[in-house]
Amino acid sequence: MKTISLPCKCKLGWDETEISLIMCNIHYNAYLDKGLNTAADDFIKIVASPKGSHYSPKILESLR
Ligand SMILES: [Zn+2]
Q1: For residues 10 and 16, what is the distance between their CA atoms, to the nearest angstrom?
Q2: Which residues contact 54 (CB under 8 A, 6 or more apart)?
Q3: For 1-64, where are the E strands, in sequence order?
Q4: End-to-end C-alpha distance for the chain, whole angstroms
């Protein structure tokens, strides 16, 4: 599994079959707030796709 560390200290990992996210405190709290209304996969995409994204199109493509 490939992993990247996000600026907020989340760790995002993915391979062909799954995406995992080890959340920082900020996003963990955000997830607790929104988690009831947001599927985990969708939340991961939100975390991984900040405005002004510096992640490559290939990474974002792999998140779809
Ligand atoms: Zn985070």
Answers
A1: 20
A2: none
A3: 2-5, 11-14, 19-22
A4: 16
CA-CA distance, 24 to 16, in Å (whole number)?
24
DSSP assignment, residue 4? E
Place of tokens 């993915």: 14
pTM, two decimals, is: 0.59
pLDDT tens-place string over residues 39-56: 777 777 777 765 544 555
Distance 16 CA to ligand 1 centre (A): 22
CA–centroid distance, residue 14 to ligand 1 (Å): 16
pLDDT digits over 32-41, tens only?
A: 887 667 777 7
